Each structure stands twice: as structure tokens, then as C-alpha cells.
Amino acid sequence: MSTRVLAKRRLVTLALLRRESIGGLYHVLTFEDPDGSAAQPGQFTMVRGAEWGDAPLLPRPMSYLTAGHAPSILIKVIGEGTLRMGRAEPGEPFTLLGPLGEPWRAPTPGRRVVLVAGGVGVAPLVFLARAIVEAGGPKPIAIYGGRSARDLPLDDDLAELTELHTTTEDGSRGARGRVTDILGDLLGPDREVFTCGPDRMMAKVAELCALRDVPCEVSLETPMACGYGVCLGCPVPTHDGAYLYACTQGPCVDARRVDWSRGDHAPKKGAHLPRSQT
Ligand SMILES: Cc1cc2nc3c(=O)[nH]c(=O)nc-3n(C[C@H](O)[C@H](O)[C@H](O)COP(=O)(O)OP(=O)(O)OC[C@H]3O[C@@H](n4cnc5c(N)ncnc54)[C@H](O)[C@@H]3O)c2cc1C
Ligand code: FES
């Protein structure tokens, strides 16, 4: 595993090397970075097309899928920014600000890692699984879920790196149901969980882990505007009644710090910056 010495963020303009489409909605974008990205698993980058003009104005936060001289991201098309990314052609210039945020903490020796991924939340977990395997650690267990088989991009990567269990709500791949339906059977005193996906999924994973006293680390995908602590637009409620800022104190945090009962971890209307990014 990599150490906790974090690389300084850089703002770079990189050419898109290739775009691999997985179904219509998911794309892996790989960039050409002559200097190499020193991002660690769990860190993210703020990405924007260098030729987008003034809309969308703000860069979009994306977890690193890989680092080095060919850093990559996995995107799911949900709005204007990701639509443009999903149509990008090789050679197109993008600005990337990164690496940003707290990476996953190092797995605890003696505990087997259980990765719990929902949909596009798989990217930082594939990066983590690869780091664990390359460091000679025990093969992680992974549970990967989505609505249907087409919502499981990168399932082949996870299958290679982990002992993989899949779930789909429509039963088109793996067990019918949700990741949390099978997580309980895979928890134990010698396990620890790393999870990324929709808030509701992570809240349930955190609850199951707390009940069994299993350590759980989550990666928060709170909407962000700046990505490095300036706009105060990414507060997440914590148990002490305060907030943590997902971009600088996360995105990877101990699940017990988050007050999941306060539900919506995105900025509320009127608080700091508006949730919708322009
Ligand atoms: C640290 C971090 C890592 C992320 N990693 C990835 C990744 O690896 N791959 C990936 O595809 N996405 C990732 N995201 C989410 C990604 O940033 C958003 O999907 C993206 O900004 C949407 O941009 P857009 O212009 O396409 O959509 P917009 O037009 O900005 O939004 C479309 C709709 O989606 C909602 N929305 C936007 N962002 C989010 C969000 N984060 N959570 C819930 N709803 C949202 C908006 O409110 C709006 O209703 C990550 C987010 C964070 C904070
Ligand atoms: S996104 Fe600006 S402070 Fe977190």
C-alpha cells in the first residue's frame, strides 16, 4: 500500500488518451500525464473540459480509478458535465486539479478487507483493491450492486482483484436484491469494510457495521464546487452536531463520524453555495 504522504495538488491540462464506453451510460476516460499523477486510492480530481466555454462553469469531482502516467476516471452520465465527458474524443484537452482529499486509510493488518460498491462508486474501490493486491495483501472480498447488470461497470476488474459477490435489484446478475442483503453474512470480527455508493446504501452499510462492531470507512460523494476547502459548499453533518467538509476532511472518513440520520449530506438550499453546480 502507498504511504500517507500526500502529493501536492497540481492544475494540469491533459489530453484525453482514450475513452472506453461501457454501455451507453458509463465511460472510462484515460488521460496522458507526462509528469505522472501521484494520487492515492480514494483521492479525487476536479475535471473540466478545457474547451467547454462558460458552461458548465465548474469542474466536476471524480475519483481516480488509476494514477501514474495514464490517470483515469470512471464516469456515469447524469448531467451536462458528464454528458460532455462521455462524448469526448481522444486528443481533447481537459483540466484536472488534483490529487485532492483524504485517501482511504491503510487496511488494518490481520483484518480482511470487504469492499462494498454501488454503481459508479466502484472506481475508488477498484483502485484500492489493486493497491492491496499489488502490495501482496490478502485478496479482498467485494460486494458490488446496482439496479441491473448494466449498472455494474468494472465488474470484470473487481472479479480479477477480489472474491466478488454481485447483486442486482432486478436479478439480472448475481443475487436478486441489494448489497446490504448479503453484507451481514460477510461481516465478522476479523473484517473491515470500505464502501462507496449512494448515500442511502452507505448509511445502511455503516449501520450494519456498527451493529457488528466492524470498522467501516466511507467515501462521501457530496456535490462540490471548489474541491479544496475554499467555497464551504460540501458540509456533511457529524455526530457531534457539527459538520465536516467532504473535500478536505474527506471524501474518505470513518463512517462513525457521519450523522447519517441527518440524511441529506449535500449542502441545503441557501447554505453556503447552491447544491446544483453551474
Ligand atoms: C469526491 C467525489 C468523487 C466522485 N467520483 C465520481 C466518479 O468516480 N464517477 C462519477 O461518475 N461520479 C463521481 N462523483 C459524482 C460526480 O461529481 C457528479 O456525478 C458530477 O459532478 C455530475 O456532473 P454533471 O454536470 O454531469 O451533472 P449536474 O448537471 O451537475 O447534475 C445532474 C443532477 O445530479 C445531481 N448531482 C450532481 N452531483 C451529484 C452527487 N455528487 N451526488 C448526488 N447527486 C448529484 C444534481 O443535483 C442534478 O440533479 C463524485 C463526486 C465526489 C464529490
Ligand atoms: S467543495 Fe469547496 S469547500 Fe468543499
Can you describe this structure?
The protein is of the alpha/beta class and 278 residues long. It folds into 3 domains: 10-100, Translation factors (Elongation Factor Tu (Ef-tu), domain 3), CATH 2.40.30; 104-219, Nucleotide-binding domain of ferredoxin-NADP reductase (FNR) module (Rossmann fold, 3-Layer(aba) Sandwich); 220-278, no CATH class. Helix content is 17%, strand content 30%. Helix 4 runs parallel beside helix 5 (199-211). The radius of gyration is 18 Å and the shape is globular. Residues 265-278 have low confidence and may be disordered. FE2/S2 (inorganic) cluster binds at residues 224-227, 229-234, 245, 247.
Descriptive labels:
Rossmann fold; seven-stranded mixed sheet; 278 residues; binds flavin-adenine dinucleotide; 5 helices; Elongation Factor Tu (Ef-tu), domain 3; alpha/beta; 30% strand; binds FE2/S2 (inorganic) cluster; 15 strands; six-stranded antiparallel sheet; single chain; 3 domains
**Could you please say which CATH topology of the largest domain applies here?**
Rossmann fold
**Proportion in β-strands:** 25-35%
Alpha-carbon distance between the two ends: 37 Å
Main sheet properties = 7 strands, mixed
User: What's the CATH first level of the largest domain?
Assistant: Alpha Beta
Q: Low-confidence stretches at least 5 residues in length (pLDDT < 50)? A: 265-278
Q: Order of strands in the sheet with the most strands?
A: 10-9-8-7-11-12-15
| Assembly state (oligomeric) | single chain
The run of helices and strands is EEEEEHEEHEHEEHEHEEEE
Principal-axes shape call? globular
Q: Could you estimate the helical fraction of the residues in percent?
A: 10-25%
* CATH homology superfamily name of the largest domain: Nucleotide-binding domain of ferredoxin-NADP reductase (FNR) module
Tally of separate helices: 5
Mean pLDDT: 92
DSSP summary, beta strand count: 15
* Small molecules (ligands, ions, cofactors) in the structure: flavin-adenine dinucleotide, FE2/S2 (inorganic) cluster
Q: What is the count of distinct domains?
A: 3
